[in-house]
Amino acid sequence: xxxxxxxxxxxxxxxxxxRRNAGKSSLVNAVTGQMLSVVSDxxxxxxxxxxxxxxxxxxxxxxxxxxxxxxxxxxxxxxxxEKTKQxxxxxxxxxxxxxxxxxxxxxxxxxxxxxxxxxxPYLIVYNKADICKRDSIADENSIYVSTLTKKGIDELKxxxxxxxxxxxxxxxxxxxxxxxxxxxxxxxxxxxxAPKGRLILPQQQVIRDVLEAGAIPVVxxxxxxxxxxxxxxxxxxxxxxxxxxxxxxxxDTPEDVYLTSFSILMAxxxxxxxxxVKSVGILEDMQDGxxxxxxxxxxxxxxxxxxxTVKLPDWIRxxxxxxxxxxxxxxxxxxxxxxxxxxxxxxxxxMLNEKEMRxxxxxxxxQKVPFTNYGILIAHMNGILQRSIEVIPALS
Length: 396
Description:
The protein is of the alpha/beta class. It contains 13 helices and 14 strands. The strands form three sheets. A six-stranded mixed β-sheet has the order 2-3-1-4-5-6, with helices on both faces. The chain has a four-stranded parallel β-sheet with strand order 8-7-9-10, sandwiched between helices. α5 links the parallel β7 (183-187) and β8. The longest helix is centred in the first third of the chain and has 15 residues, at 74-88. It is globular and about 75 Å long. Residues 37-46 have low confidence and may be disordered.
């Protein structure tokens, strides 16, 4: 996987914040070297967060996010500010852009307080250094730049790149559970819900991680699993399946072979597996009329056999015997008030980074709402949850 192919969830997220007309968009354009954001003297030109994937050494792959002005006004302005606050949930580095001719005001002070509350590394960037008086002294948390003359831009990029330490372990999904030369069978159903001509992101990522570990991936459909195991000539160390095929794959996989799913591995990788396992027991206490939120991290075309909106609700109603109600959300639209829900069921979160997934989990936990995911839920309903997490030492 090249740097340009790195998924958004694997990139260091860098958010640019500030009031309208402070020069955020001009600064983003200067840092990226592209006309990423529209620049205008009119306030409020940036209406929604604008993202750009790029490489910033020594960090490597990053996602630059230009946000609307935090001082936007009116009903539409309130929505834009809310979008800006959503960005705070997922970023790793915050850049506060200050109009150097005005300086820091109460609004910028409130933003830096938010950064500190979230333990976010941040820089205060005083823009318009070519015309402003330098009343503030640049220190380890601040720098003067000019997007007009480009003065200070290279230094800014260098300082951003050293704000966080890159931990390569964030790319390990399953590799740390394997040994060199282990056979790993990956079960990937090809049905009406499968994308045409490609594998979905978690499948791609797991295959790459198996290869990185020096293990040997063997890819097959659920309909050929039995034949694959018979012809392999040796028992595989692990079978990893799409959660939708859990029941059949469990029946076809010998008991002395580890079994798990892509979704469970994603939950482990994103940091919410333990909570997901502890939460799934709430299914036994469901009542008629209980609401369940089914959340997905991406948006995609819904099909007649869509797992989130069709299969999961059917399976849950069948398992509980209750007429539960379902609410759906996708992409960045995750509700802050979860009090009306009895359970939150999330996808694996392959398109979201760990910080966003932890935020969603912590939001649910703080409101005492159980939080689990597709793979854990399906394994539980098929009576194979314990088997599906045996390969993970901390939970087995």
